[in-house]
Amino acid sequence: LRAPPLSAGRAGLSRAEPRAEEEPEQEEADGSFQLYPGHIPTSPLQKALLAAGSAVVALCDPYRHDMVAVLGETTGCLALPNLRDKMKHDPEGYRILQERPRIRLSTLDMDRLRGLPDGTLGREYVRFLEDNKVSPDTRMPAKFVDDEELAYVIQRYREVHDLMHTLLGMPTNMLGEVVVKWFEAIQTGLPMCVLGAAFGPIRLNARKLQVLATELVPWAIRSGRNASCILNVYYEQRWEQSVESLREEIGIFPPP
SS in 3 state form for the chain? Predict the structure, then answer.
């Protein structure tokens, strides 16, 4: 069941960033069109080359977030429309597509989130950011997706990634990232997530591999299959909801 609509006071924990008016398409020198600010039009061949190059670099260094971002954009041509359709057919997901919320330091009231009770989504999200020394502002803007709406879908996926860590209770070390990638691979079908889930474990030692294979991956797969679409949750309006109740609502099983 979805949580009831929140009061204006709860929604106020995120400062809504006004959605920019759509700009007219700008024609590039080669005759292609820029569909949104920062968009870089590319041909299928160029996308294939970008995908191959970024995959090699990302596999060698999983913390090259710029290459991981390029890989996600250039290989998501089937998964992204499917995710958009799921959002359009869900009331909360549809509203997210219409309002285009962003999770950035400029839209978050960090002091108020930090002051929420322990166990709430907002408090635990800020705790995750501080404990792991990460920032929502490090998420790369979409560039190579040749559809303005799909570009927002992958941007939204990136910006809720840290919330997946929070809900799954996983840190940002290699083991935690692999577990989150397994969950996201089942949820989104993005090839970038599948590759991360498949090849990330090669960097783990034998003890961590055993824990991953016997406990964490089976749990992540079961949770990914059981959970509703993670992009259909308006997290900015759930900050005061407990992590436990949100897990139950979405369908994520408690961490092992």
Answer: CCCCCCCHHHHCCECCCCCCCCCCCEECCCCCEECCCCCCCCCHHHHHHHHHHHHHHHHHCCCCHHHHHHHHHHHCCCHHHHHHHHHHCCHHHHHHHHHCCCCCCCCECHHHHHCCCCCEHHHHHHHHHHHHCCCHHHCCCCCCCCCHHHHHHHHHHHHCHHHHHHHHCCCCCHHHHHHHHHHHHHHHCCHHHHHHHHHHHHHCCHHHHHHHHHHHHHHHHHHHHHCCCHHHCCHHHCCCCEHHHHHHHHCCCCCC
> Which amino acid appears at position 186 of this protein?
I
Domain range list for the chain: 36-250
236 phi and psi angles, rounded to 5 deg: -60, -20
Question: Which residue carries 């299928």 as its tokens?
Answer: 44
Work out the number of other CB atoms within 10 angstroms of the CB of residue 223.
23
How confident is the model over 157-213, as pLDDT tens digits?
A: 999 999 999 999 999 999 999 999 999 999 999 999 999 999 999 989 999 999 999
> What Å distances lie between residue 198 and 90, 139, 163, 186, 202, CA to CA?
30, 23, 22, 12, 9
Tokens representing 119?
A: 């166990």
Q: Phi/psi of residue 21, each to 5°?
A: -65, 140
Q: Give the pLDDT confidence score for residue 150 in this predicted structure.
A: 98
Q: How far apart are CA 158 and CA 195, in angstroms?
A: 16
Q: pTM for the full model?
A: 0.86
